[in-house]
Amino acid sequence: MERVRLERLDRSHLGGVEALLADADVLRYTRIPVPVPDGFAGHWFERYEHGRADGSREAFAIVDGAGAFLGLALVPEIDRDGRSVELGYIVAPEARGRGVATEAVRLLTAWAFSELGALRSELWISVENDASKRVAERCGYVREGVLRSVWFKQDLRDDFEIWSRLPSDP
């Protein structure tokens, strides 16, 4: 497993974010619109900045020991009253298959439990995304079931598995 760390996403990471927008798997399995609108990375970053300020979302860059950008670790939804979070991640194609996603999800989950006091963490994973399901299993998430035909962007619907983890889970 490659040693990775999370650092708060800032404008210095936008080149890495832009590169992710060209990957077919990123476009297939995320809420990023297709085709990607001009200026999307900057607008998306600003949404996360506003969310950081109001406590409704957070974004981190996944970086290696030398600080190279490997992907994103995201908290697209923070429910402070319900003490629950939705987590997500995107790993750059060149960093896949090296344990980066697993380590990033472990770090992000620990952050959500310790820093936010979350009592429930969720991952929403397309039923077709076997790699993400393996990451969820390795990180101690439990598959709860399938939400069928969920709208997730534009005119696209997909079936999503809900995976959860509680602070009390082993």
Summarize the structure.
The chain has 170 residues and is of the alpha+beta class.
Question: Could you explain how this protein is built, in words?
Answer:
The chain is α+β, with helices and mostly antiparallel strands and 170 residues long. The chain has a domain at 4-120: Aminopeptidase (3-Layer(aba) Sandwich). The protein contains 5 helices and 7 strands, in the order E-H-H-H-E-E-E-H-E-H-E-E. A 7-stranded mixed sheet has the order 1-2-3-4-5-7-6, with helices on both faces. A hairpin with a 4-residue loop joins strand 3 (69-79) and strand 4 (84-91). The mean pLDDT is 95.
List the topology elements.
Layout: E1 4-8, H1 14-20, H2 24-29, H3 40-54, E2 58-64, E3 69-79, E4 84-91, H4 100-115, E5 120-126, H5 130-138, E6 142-153, E7 156-165
Parallel strand pairs: 4-5
Antiparallel strand pairs: 1-2, 2-3, 3-4, 5-7, 6-7
Largest sheet: 7 strands, mixed
Q: How many β-strand runs?
A: 7
Q: What is the CATH superfamily of the domain at 4-120?
A: Gcn5-related N-acetyltransferase (GNAT)
Q: Secondary-structure element order, as H and E?
A: EHHHEEEHEHEE
Structural class: alpha+beta
Oligomer: single chain
CATH class placement of the domain at 4-120 = Alpha Beta
**CATH topology tier name of the domain at 4-120:** Aminopeptidase
Radius of gyration based on Cα positions: 15 Å
Low-pLDDT runs = none
On the 0 to 100 scale, the average pLDDT is 95
Tally of contiguous helical segments: 5
- Calculate the terminal CA-CA distance, rounded to whole Å: 20 Å
Task: Please state the overall shape, judged from the principal axes of the Cα atoms.
Answer: globular
Q: Tell me the helix content.
A: 25-40%
Q: What percentage of the residues does DSSP assign to strands (E)?
A: 35-45%
Major sheet: arrangement of strands: 1-2-3-4-5-7-6
CATH second-level architecture of the domain at 4-120? 3-Layer(aba) Sandwich
